[in-house]
């Protein structure tokens, strides 16, 4: 299945892309998905422990949770937000 990865704020700066397509086997654990992202964009490692994923606009903690992705599903990489 292919999914669309969307990067926001600091994650966009680190990857230097707004979005890209990736093919992943599903289901996949959220930790394995994060590992895949780190392989594609090693600079994301500075966000380790501070980032959350959103799959189809639903927050998913990085861990053992299984994620089911369909063709074209959006996965957003959401770093910590700052500001007021």
UniProtKB/TrEMBL annotation:
- Specify the pathway: Cofactor biosynthesis; molybdopterin biosynthesis
Pfam family membership, one: ThiS
Q: Does the keyword Nucleotide-binding apply?
A: yes
Question: Listed GO molecular functions?
Answer: nucleotide binding
Instruction: Give the keywords, sorted.
Output: Molybdenum cofactor biosynthesis, Nucleotide-binding
Superkingdom as given in the UniProt entry: Eukaryota
Keyword check for Cell division, yes or no.
no
State a GO cellular component annotated for this protein.
Answer: molybdopterin adenylyltransferase complex
Share an example GO biological-process annotation for this protein. Answer: Mo-molybdopterin cofactor biosynthetic process
What is the protein named? Answer: MOCS2A
Q: Which organism is it from?
A: Gouania willdenowi
């Amino acid at each position: 299945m292919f999914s669309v990865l969307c990067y926001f704020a600091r994650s966009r700066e680190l990857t230097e892309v707004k979005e890209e397509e990736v093919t992943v086997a599903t289901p996949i654990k959220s930790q394995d998905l994060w590992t895949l992202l780190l392989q594609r964009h090693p600079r994301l490692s500075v966000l380790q422990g501070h980032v959350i994923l959103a799959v189809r606009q639903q927050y998913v903690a990085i861990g053992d949770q299984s994620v089911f992705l369909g063709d074209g599903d959006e996965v957003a990489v959401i770093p910590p937000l700052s500001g007021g």
